[in-house]
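The instructor's notes for this session suggest beginning with a concrete chain rather than abstract definitions. Hand out the sequence below and ask the class to guess, before any prediction is shown, which regions might be ordered.
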Amino acid sequence: METPTELVTVFRSADASAGDDAEQVCDLLVEAGLTAIVVDDSEPGVVEGCWEVRVPANQAGHADQLIADSAATLEHRGDPSDDLDLIPLFEEGTDLTELEAMNLKTLLEANGIPTVVVGSSQLPNIPFEVRVPQDLLETAEQVVADASAAATATDNVEEPPAGQTP
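After discussion, reveal the predicted structure:
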């Protein structure tokens, strides 16, 4: 193989799946008869957290074409369903303040439900919205209902008269 100074990068990624993606691209190029190597950020010149695929400079054009042609067939990660689409937790017309939205976000995330708050402090006349993945909407609604019931039960506890313990 040629010396590392004669290699050029034809693929670079810092995604969570970058290592696997780089291996997949490298395999594609090697199967096509090119000389390709995978390098990570332990290699000088590779940005921290990145993975790269390198080929000899004279094979770069061919490698670029192979990668472009196979982009649609390379394995893509993710869930193509609508299950992870973020949808509002409450019906339209439910006005939440920033504090209420952030409290809900904290409650839901403490219960393992990823949450996004939509709104802006710079526009206080526009209410905030809490969104959750569609497939977790019922769970989120139950968490909020349980927390609301617990808060109501706590509010209904009578305080003992001064000087007496419950």
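Then share the key points. The longest helix spans residues 137-155. The two ends are 82 Å apart (CA to CA).
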